[in-house]
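hey so i finally got around to running the thing on that chain from the lab meeting. sorry it took forever, my laptop kept dying and i had to restart like 3 times. anyway pasting the input first so we r on the same page abt which one it is
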Amino acid sequence: MPAGTATGPGAEASDRDTASFEAYARVGQRRLYRTAYLLCGDPEGARDLAQTTLAKLFQHWRKASAADNLDAYAKTVLVRTFVAERRRTLRDLLAHTRTAPRTQPHPAPYSDLRVTLLAVLDELPPRARAIVVLRYWEDLSVETVASLLRCSESTVKSQCSRSLARLRTRLGDAHVYATGS
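ok and heres what got predicted. didnt touch it at all, straight out
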C-alpha cells in the first residue's frame, strides 16, 4: 500500500464528505456567483469571491453540511468574506495614499439600467451594499440580514434607508427605464 494512503472508517467518511461537497458545489456555485456579482460588480471579482466562499465551505464542510439551511450558511460565508475583503482592501488603500478625495461626476446616462445600477451600487460602502443586495435582490427579511451580518435589525433598517436614498439621488431619472408598459 502506498505511503500516506488512508484506510479505515475515517477515509470513507472523508470520501463521503468530499463527494457531498462536490455535489453541493456543482449545484450552488451559480447561486453564489450571482450574489457575488451583485456584491462585487465585476465578473472576475465575483468568481474570486465565489471560489473563496467554496474553499471556506470545503475547509469546514462537516460543520457547514450539518447546518439547518446550507444555502443560508453559504450565503453568510459569502457576504462576510466580501465585507472583510473590502474592509482590508480599503484599509490598505487608505494606508498607502495621501491624496485629497476626488469628487465623482454624476454618472453619464446609460441605456442599460443594469449597468447604471451596478455603477451606483459600487459607490456604496461594502456593508451597505451587502445590506441592499441581501434585502432587496435576495429578498431576505430584516431579521435574516441582521443575522447574516451580525448587526441589529435597526442597523439594517437605517442602512437600507440611507442607501436607498443615496441610490435614488444618484440614479436620478434612470428609474424611468425600469418602468415600461
